[in-house]
Amino acid sequence: MKNTKQSFSLFRILIKAVLFFVVLNFLFILAKDVPIGNISLYNLVFPGRSRLPFGENPSLAYNLSMYNLDAMISSHTVSSSEKDEDYKVFLIGDSSVWGFLQKPDVTLAGLLEQKNQACEKQPVKIYNLGYPSLSVLKDAMIIEKVQHLHPDLILWLVTLESLPVSTQLNTPLVENNALLVNKILSEYGLHGLQPLKTKIWEHTLISRRREIADLIRLQLYGVLWSATGIDQEYPSQYTPALRDFETDLTFHEFEIGRMDEDQLALDIITQTIRQHKETSFIVINEPILISKGRNSDIRYNFYYPRWAFDQYREIIQAEMDESGIKYYDFWNLIPETHFTNSAIHLDVDGESIFADKISTLISENCQKQ
Amino acid sequence: MKKIFIFMCMMLICMLVFACTPNGNAAADGTLAYLEALAKKDKNAVVSLTCKAWEDQAILEVDALMSVGSELKEVNCREVGQEGDVVMVVCSGNLNLTYNDEIRSIDLSKRTYSMVMEDGQWRMCSYQ
Amino acid sequence: MTILHIAVFILSAWIIRSLGERPAAMWLIFAISILSLFWLQPVSPIRTLDYWLPAMMIALSILTWLVINPKQESLLANNQITLIILPVIIIGISLLRYAQLSFLSAWINPTKIGWALLFVISIAALVFLMIKGNISQSIMARCLIIIAILIFIAIKYEPLTTKLSYALRKLNHQSTDLASAQEIAWVGYSYFAFRLIHVIRDWQTGRKISINLREFIAYIFYFPAIIAGPIARIENFAYELQNRANQVTQAHTFESSKRIMHGVLCKFILADSLSLMPLNTTTVQQASGSIWMWIIIYAYALRLYLDFSGYTEIAIGISGLLGIKLPENFQRPYLSENLTIFWNRWHITLTQWFRTYYFNPLTRFIRTYRVQLPAAWIIFLTQMSTMLLIGLWHGINLNFIAWGFWNGLGLFLHNRWSEWSKQHFKSDNKNEWVAGSVKCISIFLTFNFIALGWVWFAMPTLNDSIIAFAKLFGF
């Protein structure tokens, strides 16, 4: 009898605990707009990171890939720049800007920073906000999130591979930020893309457990970031970018020989810039590897058949001119010997050549907001 | 005591019958188990699920995935033929590798897996 | 042990407890312990090794049980059910090989039925010979201890383990190029060997215990404590087993549940979070500045404690749900004021084991030896050799020897300091502030000594350890 009473009492406690957890789980939905990612030990206990967190092998990179943009930006040194009087230049782009296989001080941003430029006596401060993901929608999301930091100039590095409409929503960072994506699509008037479907239970505590765990892990990795300055795995060897190709003229689902500009998300670039009138923008077509290998007469590199890239260049030039956006095309600036494991990743020498060019642009375009 | 002994014998006989009942899709199931272990980067499980001749290759396959994210998407496998002791298996679905935050999908239907019966289990022995 | 294992063990504990004092409860403890042995053993790249390792442990346990029980005809009769079930399980698992379960190879590679039958028949023959034949129990006891130690050396001494891996691969017609020491991961062997040696040594020294095979197996392979202890004494365990019904109260259940939750928090949240700041060759080389090195060392020290104590709490909690009290293994060791107290609070059951079966007998031997050594020498020899052995238990390489030496030296120096300070300082200082400060400083110094000792423990080579020390002190 006593055992039965005890069992029943325990059972009741268990039921209450489960019910309490269920309620808490669903109450968490109310916090869906709360920027929990803004709670960060970076720029407080740990120095801010030089680039946005990304790491596919966290145990070696002391870094991890995550999807909470607030947390990513809070961990970046740029978050401590809100009140600075420097001339702030943000670099936006893909893995080439982020600096695959490059230490923070020899990325494009790092080399530009070493030039110690000044803009009307204001020191120029360069912030690397690139992220290894080929999608201009991803870039627009980052730009939207950093506007409160009042950048003076945004250098937006793009390439054709980041523009197909069909791939804009595929990248994990975009997929996992549905609320922000839908806000951008709505406010910027981008009707070419379908808003992401969100379900209410995606905001429960259980659904967001991975996000919360990543937030905590990011803070913990701050120790090794501070202790070592390492935020990326640097393999001793890498597979060089392809220079020989098959006879392949295809580019995504585009009709061969015809670059349909409606299938390029150029409106994301133009609308983003229009939305942020208070900031100066320069759009740059980043350098690509121009191969001399097998079938290089029909393909520039792994990403681009020649016909597609050539037509893209004409289209983007026309679009930028029509929109009155400052645009520079550096597609063939860097010799192919300075590319590393990808048709867009540069080595230090290639990055130096590119940095010299960009620093000239910054000087030329230096102006007060 | 006698009852326990008879019960134990019956248990053993049941297990024998169970063990000897052929599983029609065993080779395909073995391929799926291999792919699941590969996606999880479980080196020991991957090696255990491959034949002895393919062991070092299997380790290379797992090592190649160490620096990337990997995930199976909607994978189903079926046997498509037999050449001697080797059963050919084809799978539908994708092995998604996340590298550089890009998802590179490997279409598994383009591969034919060769499964061999080794040490009582169907094990992956190569693919083309 | 993963969360899944813990969840299954908790569920099993509830089922067993709900059976109360029925015989089925005891059988369930026995069966789950045996099956857990196979379940917890990770799949090995060496074919069928993950089957044979647990099978060998079962065989060694049966032989040990025969050693510690008096030879009598009724022994078999009184334990025949257990003696039938054990081979059924061993053969049954082997039969899974023929079931063509696709997922099986990711868990276990059972051997051919022929080999399993041969194994069972061999063990049965040995059992028969031990009971009916002339095999001396005392010779068997010595053989079992030697076998246990030899296996231990084989799996802990890397060059030997690599050779073993090579030999097993060759036997299995697998590529020997891939042989490595890491392939032979014998889960739970250390604690198994401790329990085995404990019961044999107690028997040899005249401490008899009457225990049937089912309970003996349950003790050796007790599922909550199989991987990481604690190392219970067999007579205490047997008593707890018999009286578990009295411990199944609401208060005990709450306490046990709290222990489990606390253990899960310590191990899977705190310790696993601290594992993101590892102490290894790479981080030592990469760390800039001694402050960060100290932080990494402290994080490692904390992680070791939380990891180990977490596992122990889970084991004690699950066992508590069953009504079986296991001994405590940690008592706030990092708040110890000196090394002697620390080693009485850290991995308590292990130090008690070494104290009982090595330290005390060695001390007695040296004291009664015809050549009389000074007291200080006796203390040095016994403490140092004990710590060296504990170091070697973790692994047979220079770093673990260095760690053992570090702690042995520390214990000895503390012992000498204690003796000296008793003679030269008044111990009845009534000033609370002074006493409190001394206590804090003592705790701080002890913790740092232990934390620095973990450098030897964590680094793979002496050179790496020296680099770590150099960085810690700004060189």
Structural class call of chain B reads alpha+beta
What's the CATH first level of chain B?
Alpha Beta
Shape, principal axes of CA atoms of chain C: globular
**How many strands, which pairing sense, and closed or not: the largest β-sheet of chain B?**
5 strands, antiparallel
Number of strands of chain C: 0
- Helical proportion of chain C? over 70%
Task: Compute the CA-based radius of gyration of chain B.
Answer: 18 Å
Global structural class of chain C: mainly alpha
Number of distinct helices of chain C: 20
Quaternary assembly:
heterotrimer
Number of domains in the coordinates of chain B?
1
Biggest interface pair, counts? B-C, 38 and 34 residues
Radius of gyration of chain C: 24 Å
Helices and strands of chain B, in N-to-C order? HHHHEEEEE
Would you tell me the overall average pLDDT of chain B? 83
Q: What is the domain tally of chain C?
A: 3
Order of helices and strands of chain C: HHHHHHHHHHHHHHHHHHHH
**What share of the residues of chain B does DSSP label as strand, in percent?**
35-45%
Using DSSP, what is the number of strands of chain B?
5
Estimate the global geometry of chain B from the Cα principal axes.
Answer: elongated
Uncertain spans of chain B = none
Topology:
The complex is a heterotrimer of chains A (369), B (128) and C (475).
Chain A: H1 2-27, H2 58-61, H3 69-74, E1 87-92, H4 95-98, H5 108-114, E2 118-119, E3 122-128, H6 136-146, E4 153-158, H7 172-175, H8 178-187, H9 209-228, H10 266-275, E5 280-285, H11 306-323, E6 326-329, H12 348-364
Parallel strand pairs in A: 1-3, 1-4, 4-5, 5-6
Antiparallel strand pairs in A: 2-3
Helix pairs in contact in A: 5-12, 6-10
Chain B: H1 2-20, H2 26-39, H3 43-48, H4 55-65, E1 69-83, E2 86-99, E3 102-107, E4 112-118, E5 121-127
Antiparallel strand pairs in B: 1-2, 2-3, 2-4, 4-5
Chain C: H1 3-18, H2 23-40, H3 49-68, H4 73-78, H5 80-95, H6 113-132, H7 137-156, H8 158-171, H9 189-204, H10 213-220, H11 234-242, H12 250-274, H13 281-286, H14 290-322, H15 339-345, H16 348-368, H17 375-394, H18 398-424, H19 432-458, H20 462-472
Features:
heterotrimer, B: 128 residues, alpha+beta, Nuclear Transport Factor 2, Chain: A, five-stranded antiparallel β-sheet, elongated, C: 475 residues, mainly alpha, 3 domains, 72% helix, globular
